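Thanks for the sequence, V.! I ran ATPase inhibitor subunit zeta right away. Repeating your input here for the record:
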Amino acid sequence: MAAVTRNEIAEKSFVIREERSFHSRARADRDAGLWMAGRMGLDAAAAEDFAAAAVEVGVRVPGGRGGFDHLAAYLGQAGINIEELRTRYALVMASAELSDAALAHADSVEARKNPA
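Predicted structure:
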C-alpha cells in the first residue's frame, strides 16, 4: 500500500469541503425557496417548483449567491424584507455547519475505532 502524501490528503480534504459547501448552499436555496413559497401562498407542487428553480439558479451562477438573488427578486410578492431572507439563509447555513461538524466528528470516531 502506497503512503499517502500530505498533498493528496490536502487535495482530498479540499474536495470534501467544497462538496459539503455546495450541498449546504443547495439545501439553503431549497429551504429558503420553500419557505418563501409558503409566504406567497403557493400550493405544494408550485412550492417545490419554486424551490427547485432557486436551487437551479444557485448551481448555475458562480459565487454561490444565485439562489439568494433569485429569491430576493420575489420579496414583494412574499411580503418579506431582505433581512428576513438573510436570516433564513443564516439559520439554514448554521444548521448545515452543525450537521457537517457532527459528520466530521463521527468520521473521526469511526477512524479511531477502525484504523486502516
